[in-house]
Every structure is written in structure tokens, then in C-alpha cells.
Write a structure and sequence with these properties.
The structure holds 2 protein chains of 2 kinds. Chain A is of the alpha+beta class. Chain A is built from 12 helices and 34 strands. Chain B is of the alpha+beta class. Chain B is built from 12 helices and 15 strands. Chain B has a 4-stranded antiparallel β-sheet. A 3-stranded antiparallel β-sheet of chain B has the order 11-12-13. In chain B, a hairpin with a 4-residue loop joins strand 5 and strand 6 (257-258). The chains are: A alpha+beta, B alpha+beta.
Chain lengths: 753, 516
Amino acid sequence: MRITNPTLLRGYNRDLNRVMNLKNKSEHMITTTRQFSRASDNPLSAAKALNVRKSQHYSEQYQENLKVAAKFYTEAETSLIQVSDQMAVIRETIIAAVNTTKDQQDLNIYAKQLETKAEELCAIFNTDSAGRAIFGGECDDPQPFNILKDTNGHPSIVTYHGIPVNSMNDFTKFPYSDDVNVDVGLGMAVNQESHEIDPDSVLRISFIGPEVTGCGAERGVADVDLSAIVQNRTYSLYVYAGDVKQKVDFVGQGTQQENVDEINRVLKEAYKKEIAYGRNYPEMDAQGVISLRDKMGDAVEDGIVSVINNPYPPKHTSELKVDNDSNYTDKYKLRLSELPEGETYKVNVQLGNDEAKVIEFETGSDNLSDPNNPVFREDITVQNFQEALDEAFGEGVITISPNDPTKGVISSEGNIVKLSVYNDKYDPDATHEPATSYGKADITTTSTDVKQSNTLYLAKLKEDTSYAMNVTIGGTTKKVVFKAGKTVSDTKKEIAEAVEKEFEKDYPDGTLKVNNKGEFNFTDKDGDKQTVKLEEVAAADLDGYTSVDLGKTTNYKIDLTALEDGKEYSLKFIVGNDVKNITFTAGANAGANKTAIENELKGFAKLDDNGNITANGNVPVTVSNNPAPDSKNGKIYERESAYSYNYIQLTLDAARALREGDIEYANGCIDRLVESNEKLLVEIADLGCNEEFIDFNISRLTVRDLNLAERQNDLEIIDPAKQITLWKQYEAMYNACLQMSSSVVPQSIFDYI
Amino acid sequence: MRPTFLGFETQKRTLQIAQKSIDITGNNVSNINTPGYTRQRVDLYAQYFMGNRDLKWSSKSNSLSMTGQGVNAYGVSQIRDIYIDKRYRANVAIEAESETARNILSELEDVLDNFETDGLQNFTHQFFKAMQDYSGEKPDSEEIAVTCVNTAKNLCQLLNDYDLRLTEIEDTYVQDLRDTVDYINELTNEMNVLNDKIVKEKFHYPEEYDPNELLDEMNLYIDELATYGNIEVERHESGAYSVKMGGVTILDGENFKTNHILMKDYETYGNAVLYWQSGDSFNVTSGSLKAYYNLINGNGVYATGNQNNYYGIAYYKSAVDEFARTIANTFNKANYANIDEFRAMFAPSEKDAVVTAKNIRVADSWEKNPTMIGQVRKFDPITGLYEYGYDEIRDENTGDVQLQNTNVLYLISQFDNEEIRFGTAHDFKGSVNGYIAFISNRLGQTIQYEKSRNETAQSTVDTILDARDDVSAVQMDEEGINMLNYQKWYKASSRMVTTLDDLLDKLINGTGRVGL
């Protein structure tokens, strides 16, 4: 081959360039510490690196989520351990109570102790983690557990989100019994259609209270105190029977038997579907005990019935049972079940902006004679209504939904149609009197001079009113102006500030304190007390402010003899800043009336034989007829007679048994508490397992992080030693190449001839 | 009878040829660095005389006396191998093609980088992280939901920026292509002129050898033309060259015509469309024109019309568009926007347009109401309609409402949804992150392919250049030896003239004079 100069030069140039490239690339790798700066440098590593990075990102996020969960589980475990300790104490208390002969007073003390313990348990289960109740299920609010008191003021019924824990055996039927979950990298699986999360693929960070504390009872009947039912009073109850909850309303009747009949009537109405389908339903016996019956009418041995007063009774509405107080919308849905049988209704139906048309239809009747094919009046009503709509608007223009849960919603091609309902007896102008009205007690007032030189009755001050008074401290008199606040303590602060400011010159750094009785005490900077004297400001000097009233207080007197026997009265008491409404039924004479009122007042204020009312301490009391009682609903109280599966309830039941001297019952609680405690220990162990699982996952992810970091290093980061060695090598090669340059063009024959 | 001065004539010619040989050696040495120069040599032959070769000195009519007339030359030729030229031109086209492709793709990769700068992966992750953080909160936590909006905005802006920069690259290379086409046309014009010169030269001096220097110049032009496309070269009797590119004559040596390449208006066609002045369709199989064609029009699986299946600028623009569209569709759908428009998380900047990387925005409805994504679609049993609200559990007693963030968990699950189809042509099925890696990998692989193709072609071209040098380049030692040789030759010839002179001198001045 002929080696020519261009060949040599091109080859040299090419090689020099190649070495230069290697050197440059190596330098870039060292300065960036990266094996590649573009995917094309090493597509395989780059693809892997992207995956590793993604895994790293996910791993970090999952660790954060796990830490949230870890805190939650730790707090739950701590709570349960506390509970376990408390349960030991409860058990010992019951054992002590039942095993020694005690008189009732001692038993009452034990009962009180148990009640306190139950309240403590409640408090523990209301523990929150970062603002969310741990045992509240999906509910964010704290305090899912609550204890209702009985007529005697003793804690009696444990409720979870307002529902007695005894009422249902299935904890999932309690409200908020779904889980709150976080994605912790278990491969969160979500159904793409229903958007439902597979619970096994996430970590739950909520506990359902009744699941942990137990729910339901061995057998449960509701013992309604029939004697407490007042005639003509409306009652609203929540009944839980056979895991079906119903709200029943009834009006108090004249006799006990009539009440039983009335209650059974509304129960039957409420549970008509259960009855029609042969399922269990509740029924009250002549003594007022509601128990669960099977289709033969026999009591179900392990059935549970629970009744509580509806804590949120409906506001009084017209007799048109139209959904007016719904949280949703009130103008589109008929409350079909509340339309009585065989009545004719007139309904205004408004389509869009067209004028409303009046539709007349008849409500249907139940036909439950054929248990295989029961006919419910709601369905007939829907049919009738639909027919009337078709006639008025044309077929299919407006439809009323026949199927639950939308049954009764009327719509037109998917759009809601406005509806107003009235029956043919409707008189829109009539005012609707409450079902029960109260008698009016004769209350007279007299004034007493209670003027004291250093006392101001704070409760008499009106909110947001600016008052003026003369204050004398140590011979100096100043006009002090202050504004009464929303609460007494606000007002106290206002007064103290105003007085201290006025007397700043005379008594620098002095302190005014107003105690609960309204007495003023002034202390100067040396700690010496100074006498304080308060005076009303002369009308001429008021400058538009209101004068304080130091002089008189008003005494209230109820004319006990003027009360009508058997009539109900409602009174409003204000003592200091506290308000109490009482409702009582008047007796035959003044003495009976006094007792009736005192029973309701429960020491809130004093009442003498003449009907004079005084407070405990020197605070004014005002009394008035209560024109708008808070609730027109009567209250009834029930008691459970079987053992609860819920240990807080069991504790309360034991306490009640002790109060009633039912040692046998209390004794029965002990074994069950032991059993519950064992379950609790299992729960705690479970929690421990979960915590371990979380810890395991955290450490797994930490290890994974390390591995991923290492893998990322392998994939993306250079090995400096190796790379620097290489670079040195390239540099040497490059230098050698440069050195060669002088002899790239070799000597030729011309150099020698 | 031998003519008296026959020897002188012979030596005169020898001296002339020796002199020319030295000239050509000098020419070779002079042009050792001239691009395209082909080494030349004087083609020598021994002069012979036709006739009776019998050694009959006495005969009157023999030609023996005419023999020994020395050397003569056909002319000065150049040493060239047309097969090497052909191979060189085929390979240099591939080299130029892969080089151009690699350069353009590298620019794309600079834009779509995930490694040295924060790219799609990072921005997607920020969006994911914001959603995760939000999922642990109550859905009405607006201050945290805002983070989701902001990270989504950043993602949109990145996509907008991608589109802008990819379009810039596209514009740059469309302009490059225009310039290249102009340049090729200019080149063929010059070659046409050169053809004319060569033919004239041949016509006027038909006895002569080819005009070597003109041929060198023509070959240089052809070599350059070869980098733009696959060419075929034909030389005519007249000495003119005809060149075909991609099967179509670009230079017609017989008729001295050029066939220019024309480019249709890019703005109108949206693709690079070249065609021949002659009306033939343009179709090259290699060369940098092919690379421009591929890179500008290459739309991979989305190719339609004038586009081709190469994964070029158009494809990556489409891929980024598809990413934008799919992200928008996936999250919009997951958030029920397919049922109710106002639920859209992403939207195009112009109403009713298809979402692209250029126009993707965070939807107004989401921006105004960041916690919208915390709301689910639910059936209202009272109205019988679906409505949107937080996933709430309403306490039927108190009316208290508890809020859950299930919708966001569902949205998060979309990040790992392996069933997402990216691209109308079903380019990719898998997760969002998978697609990012897929695109990054496809680009990387293509670049690497072009890179190794380029390296191979380069190495082949180098080998061929060496082979060409082997034949055609000037070798210094060789020329030096020739120079010495020709010098001695010349000297010997000169000496021969002296000898002949002596001979004649003897014959003329010394013959017949005895004793002088």
C-alpha cells in the first residue's frame, strides 16, 4: 500500500480527535459525577435510572404516609392499654361491691365510682390524633362516644355518634363505619368503575368505636317508663330493632293501655315492611317493655331493641307531611310514607318557568294480607300520582320515581321539577298552634334594696351597652365608663381595665379584681387593699351613657296557689349568667307545686313556701314564663335489662344494678368484663402487629431507599477512582499524540538528496 | 538508410519527455496538498518504426535503419479508480445522513432531558406528591389543594415550553433544509458550467488526453453532492458527466441541463415536501437530505400524508402532545369531566380545541376552586340526581358532615394505572411514568442507533479514503525517486547528444584526414 501524506495526516487527525473526545467526555463525567448526561449516552441505564428514580420518589412518599399512620397506631395502642388498666380497676370495684355485705349507701358509692370509670373510658376512646378521633371511624370530629343520663341524672346509656352502643350487633351499621385509608405502597388498587378502594391495598388510619369497645347485647329490650308519658304531648323516638332503625312519633294518650296501643300502632306502621316480609319487628307489652318479635309474634331470645329519645326532634310543621326541614331540598320529593291512607291531595307542579298546574291524586292503602305479595300504599300513591301527572302534562313528560331511594322524587327528563303540596283541607293562612300549650304561671315581682357600696350585679348588665359609674378609691372619685361584654368574665375584664386606667395616676400599677358576687377589690402596687366605693352617676353627668343600677334588685315570686292542677307549665330561670328552663306539672296544692318545681330546679335556685325565689348567694334571679320552650317533645327513658357486649355500657349497667341492689346482675358483669378484657388484649396485640407491620414497612422502605440510592449510584453516578484513572489515561494518550505530531509527516527522500 | 540526424531527433524527444516527466513530478509535489488533486504521470511508450526489421544493413530498401527512435509519450494521465469513487460516494452519503440525524436528535434530547435538568419526570412527580400530601388532609384544605393546582400548572408550563422549543428546532431545520436545497442547486449549476468546459476542451483538442484538472474539480463537486443524497455518475463520450440523485437526473451532461430541487411552502404543507424541477417526485435513500426529510417529517406511528415513519421532530412533538392530551383526558375523566365539563382539571387554552402540549392549561374551574378534586360525584337520593361535593358522611341526627378525600386517592391511582393508552395510534400502553421512560428511551435508542451508524460509515469512509489515496494521492518519496530518476534520464539523454555530436564530428571533421 502506498502511504501518502494525506493518509497519514487524516489518520493522525482522526485519532487525535478520538482521544480528545474520550478525554473531554471523561472530564465531563468527573465534573458532573454522572455516568451519562443524556439518555442516548446509555439508553439502557437511562431507562433503568428513570424507573429507579420513580421508585425512589414513591418510596419517600410512602414513608411519609406511613409515619402519619404510625403515630395514629401508637396513640391507639396507648389508649387501649390505658383502657385495659381501667378495666382491671372496674372489675375489682365490682368484685369488692358484690362480695362484701354493704348497705345501699356503700353500693351507691361503688356505683358512683363505676360511673366515673365509665366516663373515663369514654374520655379515652374520645382521644384524638391530630384533631381526628382515633376511634371515631370516618368522622373527623372528636368525641364520638357520649353518655346519656337517666331521669335521676345518673350516666345511663353509652352512645356512639348518637346511637346507643347496645342497639345493633353489627358494628358496620353504626355511622362512619367505613375506613379512612392512606396509600403506603401496598399496591393501592382502585376499581376504575366504582372508584372503590380495595381495603387490602391500603393502610387504614381509623378505628370504628363499636368494633373496639363491643356493641349489641345478649338480649335487649327497651323498658319505656309509661307513667312519664304526658297526655297530648308529642314524643319522638329512635327505635333500633333487628338492626333496623326507625324514627317513630306519637302523641301521649290518657291511660297507660292507650299509650301502649298507640306506641304499638306507630311501631307497626314504622316496621310494616319487616312485618310484611316476615322479619323480626318490635312490639311493646302492657308493662311498656318493647322487645323483638318474630313473625309468629314470639319474643326473639337474643333480639335487641333499643329506644332513645330523638335528640333532634323535628320542628313543629303543619299537618301536611311535606319534607320541609330536610337537609337536602324540600320542594321535589314527596314524603310518601307520611301521607295518610286514602286522602285526596292537591299538588302544585311547576315545570320550568311555566305556570304551576294543580294535580289531584289520592293516596293508596296498604294491603298486607298476602305476605308473599304485600302491597304498600306508597307504591299505589306513586301510581296514582303518575297517572295524574300523565293526564295533566302528557305521558312521560314528568315522572315520579317509583324506586328507592329516589322514590317520590319528581323529575322531567332528568331535571327536577318544583312541587308544592297541600291537601284539600289546607288553609295556608292558618297558624299552627303547638300540639301542647303550657299554662301561664302568675309571677309577681318586688324590689329589694340590696345596695352595697362595693358591689355591682354584673348579670343585670346588658351586653354591648356602655355604662358609667362613679368609683371612689382612697378618697379619689372618678367617673368610670365601660362596655358590658358578652359574658360576665368579659365584663369583669372591661371594668378592671377601665378602673385601672382611670386611677393610673393616683395608683400606678394598681389591680382591680371583681369577684363572682360582683364585689370590687382594689390592690395598690404595694399589695395594700384600698376600699372601693361605687356610686351611680347623676343623670346630668351621664353624657349619654347608661347608669349602672346599684340600688335595687328584683325579687320574683310565683303564686303557687294560682297554678291549675294537672296543667303543664314551663318557666325560664336566670341565675347570674346561667339559664335553665324547667317544665313541670302543677299539683293539687301549693305544697305539691313547690315540690314539683323544686324537683325540676334541682338546686338551681331556692324556692320558699310562699313562692319567693332566691339564688344561692347574693346573685339576682329572674323568672319568667317560658313563651317558646326549646322542645315541645316529651322525653321518655328506657333501660336495658340484658348484658351489653360493650364494656363501657356494661360498666354503667353494673353501676345501675348496684344502685338498684341487683347484686346478681352486677356479679354477672364481672365474667363478661374479664371476657371483654381478653378481647381487648387481643385488640392490643392486633394493634401491636399493625405497628410492627408499619415499622417493618418503614424499615423495609428505608432499606429500599438505600438500595435504590445504591442502584441509582450504580446506574447514574460514576465510580470516581475508575473514572479518574481513565481520565489520566486519556490525558496521557492525548499528550503522547501531541508529542507524536512533529513526526506525523515523516522525513522523505527530499531530506537526503 | 538511417537518416544522419535520427539520433538527435530521438534524443531531442527524450530530453523533452524527460523534461515533461520532471515537470509532472514537480506538479505532483506542488499539488500534494491540493484538495481533489489526482496524481499525474506521463504515459511513456517506446517509439517504433513500422517496416522491415531484417538486419540488412546493405539493403537499400530496408527499414532497419529507422529503428531505435527512442521514447515517446501518449500524454499526461491521472491515476484514479472509479470503483473507489463509487464506494466512497455511497458511504459518505450514509455518513452525512447519520450525522445530520444525530445532531438534530441530540437537540431534541436537550429539550426533553430528564437527567441534567428537571424534566417531565420531575414535574410529574411534583404533581403526584402534591396529590399524595393532599390525600392525607381533609378535602376542604384549600391551602394544600392549591399546591396541587400549582404543581399541575408547572407541569403544563413545562409542556408549553417543550412545544415552543421543539417548534424552534423544527423551524431551524426547515430553514436549514431550504438553504441546503439552494446550495445543491447552485452546485449543479457550477457542475453544468464545468461540463461545458470539459466538453469544449475535448472537442478542440480531440487528440489530447483529458483535462485532468477540470476532472479533479468535477470529481470534487460530485463528492460534495454525494453527501446530500444517493447519486449515480455516468461519463459520456463527450467527456461530460451526468449525475442522478435518488434515480432522477440532477445534471444532464449530454444536454447540459440541470434539474433543480424545489421545496413546497412549508407553512402551507406543514411538512417538508421536495420535488424536482422536472416534475419527478423526490426520493433519496441516503444523504443529509434524507436525514432532513426523516427528521422534519418523521412522525413515527402518527405519520399521515407526506410524513414518514421515522421518529423525528414531528413524532416527538406528537409524543409531547399525546402526553399532554392523555394526562388531561385521564385526570379529567377520573374527575368526571367526561360527564360534567366543569370538572375538568386540564383544558386547552382555546375553548373546544383538542388539548396539545402548546395549549394545555389548568382548567379555570379547577384554578378557581382548587379543592374541586377533593369532591366526588355522588347520587343524591333526595333529588335523584348526581351532584358534586366532598365525600361526606352526614350525621342524620346532628347534620354534622365529615369529609373524606377518596376522590384524590382515586386520582392518585391514575399515576399507576397501567392501562392508559398514549397516542391515537396506540403508541404506548402503560403508566404515566412508563410513558416518560418510553419516550426518553426511544429517543436515546434512536440517537444511539444513528451514532453507531455514523461511526461505522465514518470508519468505512476513512478506509475508502485511504484506498483512494493509495491510488491517487501523491507520495513524496515516490516523487523524489522519480525526480532523481528523471534527472539522471535527462542527463543521460544529454550525454547521448554529446556522443552523437562526437560521432558526427568524427564523421564530418575527422573522416578522410589522415595524419592531421
